Amino acid sequence: MKLYYCPMTRATRPRWLLEEIGCPYELVRLDLSKGEHKKPGYLAIHPHGVVPALCDGDLSMFESSAICMYLADKFPERNLAPALGTPARGLYYQWMVYSIATMEPPVLKVFLNTAFLPETQRNPKETEEGRTQFREVANVLGRALEGKAFLVGDQLTAADVMIGSIVGWSKRLGLLEDAPEALRDYAKRIMERPAYRRAITD
């Protein structure tokens, strides 16, 4: 398997999951500053020219959540996804979708307007809207994690990788300072995992 990757991007998610799985894979680093992600060879793999993308034999696929779901199902012995047809599988799908559809947008809004965009293009109103929306997300996650180590079942799943990666991003942006204790404890547990630490280096 080949994972096309750049540090501090959504490609960290499948890299983290691959590290949890412990299977051999090739990490193909793309230098975005040199436009390597926009060259024809890579565009044939990912038509939008962004990361991540995964190649596994004849399969080429993109979207971090889809890659993580694929990997969790490819290695069932690692128990990174609940069994099909179970209530736990339903909750797993819920949090996988929640990570992208509900949690990431406000975090991205804060990131763009406090760190990424040039100062002249930043919008304080957008920042405050993002912070307000994230507080609601944090409360929902805090309630879901009350008395639990992970979101679904008693061990880490790909849903924790998706949610946990955004939790780590949120912490770096200072969004967890007034978050529920259960979410802050979860962030600490997640970010101390050896596989997580390996995934966010270089």
Average pLDDT level: 97
Percentage beta strand: 5-15%
Structural class of the secondary structure composition? alpha+beta
| CATH architecture label of the largest domain | Up-down Bundle
Element pattern in H and E: EHEHEEHHHHHH
Number of domains: 2
CATH class of the largest domain: Mainly Alpha
Q: Can you give the helix content as a percent range?
A: 40-55%
CATH topology of the largest domain: Glutathione S-transferase Yfyf (Class Pi), Chain A, domain 2
Principal-axis shape equals: globular
By DSSP (H or I, 4+ residues per run), the number of helices equals 8
Could you explain how this protein is built, in words?
By secondary structure, this protein is an alpha+beta fold. It has 8 helices and 4 strands. The chain has 2 domains: 2-78, 3-Layer(aba) Sandwich (Glutaredoxin), CATH 3.40.30; 87-199, Up-down Bundle (Glutathione S-transferase Yfyf (Class Pi), Chain A, domain 2), CATH 1.20.1050. It has helices at residues 12-21, 40-43, 64-74, 87-116, 124-145, 158-172, 181-191, 194-199, and strands at 2-5, 26-29, 53-56, 59-62. The chain has a 4-stranded mixed β-sheet, covered by helices on one side. Strand 3 (53-56) and strand 4 (59-62) form a beta hairpin. The longest helix has 30 residues, at 87-116. The chain is globular.
